[in-house]
Amino acid sequence: MKMIEDNRKPADVLDDLYLAERRRAIVELVQMQGRVAVTELSQRFGVSEVTIRADLQALAEQKLLVRTHGGAVRIDNDLGEMALALRRQRQVKEKSRIGQAGAERIEEGDAVFLDSSSTSLAIAHHLKQHRYVTVVTNSLEVVHELFNAPGVDVVLVGGVLQRETASFVGAHGLEEIARLNLQKGFFGAHGVDLLAGLTDVSPDEAAVKRPIAALCRQVIAVLDATKWGRVGVASFATLDQVSVIITDAGAPGEMVAAVRARGVEVATV
Amino acid sequence: MKMIEDNRKPADVLDDLYLAERRRAIVELVQMQGRVAVTELSQRFGVSEVTIRADLQALAEQKLLVRTHGGAVRIDNDLGEMALALRRQRQVKEKSRIGQAGAERIEEGDAVFLDSSSTSLAIAHHLKQHRYVTVVTNSLEVVHELFNAPGVDVVLVGGVLQRETASFVGAHGLEEIARLNLQKGFFGAHGVDLLAGLTDVSPDEAAVKRPIAALCRQVIAVLDATKWGRVGVASFATLDQVSVIITDAGAPGEMVAAVRARGVEVATV
DNA sequence: TGCAAAAATCGAAAGCAAATGAAAATGATT
DNA sequence: AATCATTTTCATTTGCTTTCGATTTTTGCA
């Protein structure tokens, strides 16, 4: 079914632009919207479709956009493909209030660690507006998320690429990280348990997190309710190391109470 | 009504001043309004349109504005992102062929280094089909390119993110890299010179490449023709360290001969 | 599904008015 | 008289539109 747009909007029509102005505007539009139609542009700028086609062809030759039938689309930017490959996890990011709560605990001047969990990614998303923050991470997605956040310095812990988690393992360059004075470290985990502490399903991931957790003044675990009581194969931090657990409503009351009794702050958002 | 200026021109120099003043005013107008029309300027300054056109042409040659039909618009010094995208598009064909030639030198089982140059990215592109290859890099784009190449193991050299080049600097984790037995290292460069060797414009980048170049059995420089004879601020390898230079037709013959005389293989694609 | 008709989109060519540049003429200043 | 900014004149170019036949995509129907 086709959507019929009622475009009776004379106010939106940009008339009498110079060629260069119109083409600049087209590039801007295509950057913003991702796609434009010849008809739409023709109406908006008050010129014929032939003229718009000439514009699009010229702009396509300058690699400023990609021509398609009926219009044009944004040029495939460097990191767009990766975003596509990892789209599933990104949707989660939008909804997470845990990320917001985590970001609120980060102050100007802080140096923090974010691991490769989806909750860390959510924190990174909410960090974009911050300034004078240094983020240390082993997550490719966190780097991607913060690539356009000029106020945030990003330090990536190198290593071998794990494609499943888009992260790097192998503990490369820990000596340099150790000099960084990390105030807070945010760790997702597969499970939290009184005995096993924070655990991960991947021993490699755990091997990266373990020494970094030891470096952080505060270890902050970010866990949704389902993680309570679960245990993964590899522990990377004991409960004694953990300062704060950020979780959502639905965390089992007895476990929360037990954890609090061990001196861990539990924040529910 | 015509505006008549009472111009008792007192001295010879003031004659030029009036012209210069009008042009300065035009530049100011264009900066403020974003756009000006020839007719509008003609009326405002009380001179003919031909004169205004001469003004606009002169100002356009000085890059103080952009000429259009009927007027002129402000110079667009907007997105650095776009500039980056454009820079990346330059000489695509040549770089692709250089990348192909570089990729052909990589065999099964090899461990190679790729730096954060666009030619290295081209090599990565042609490496996608290879198997049992390990790529060490400090380039975010190389990682991205190889993310969906399951036959290629990727090791990222960590460090501080440089957004302009999408690379990581700071020499994190070089000890681990040193254990890797790198057969070949591919290095783009800002210039190649008999005395300075391979040079880069960024000291930080050079600081990463220098120790890695020292680790590689073979240092292979990948350079398009424009790089010959240029020198950047920071050297990262002497010519003696270089085994092969891959370049395109158009490299200056004398320099190529001189480099060959120094025992460096030069491959032209 | 599959295929043909219909609709949308496209490129080339022709036409037109505004804008342009080149060259000669004007005019002011020295 | 000489110079130089400016103007006038005019043939040419540019930007745009309209038209029309050729494509491509979508739709309708089996």
Could you characterize what this model shows?
The structure is a homodimer of 269-residue chains. By secondary structure, chain A is of the alpha/beta class. Chain A has 2 domains: 11-73, Winged helix-like DNA-binding domain superfamily/Winged helix DNA-binding domain (Arc Repressor Mutant, subunit A); 83-268, Rossmann fold (3-Layer(aba) Sandwich), CATH 3.40.50.10470. Chain A has helices spanning 19-33, 38-45, 49-61, 80-85, 87-95, 97-104, 118-127, 140-146, 174-178, 203-215, 253-261; strands at 35-37, 66-68, 71-73, 111-114, 133-137, 152-156, 159-162, 167-169, 184-187, 191-193, 197-200, 218-222, 234-237, 242-247, 265-268. In chain A, the strands form 4 sheets. In chain A, strands 6-5-4-9-12-14-15 form a 7-stranded parallel beta sheet, with helices on both faces. In chain A, strands 1-3-2 form a 3-stranded antiparallel beta sheet. In chain A, strands 10-11-13 form a 3-stranded antiparallel beta sheet. In chain A, α2 packs across α3, α5 crosses α7 (118-127) and α7 packs parallel to α8. The longest helix of chain A has 15 residues, at 19-33. The first copy, chain A, is elongated and about 75 Å long. The interface between A and B is large, with 39 and 40 residues. β6 of chain A pairs antiparallel with β7 (159-162) of chain B, so a sheet runs across the interface. Chain B binds a DNA duplex (30 and 30 nucleotides) through residues 7, 9, 12, 15-16, 18-19, 38, 47-51, 53-54, 57, 69-70.
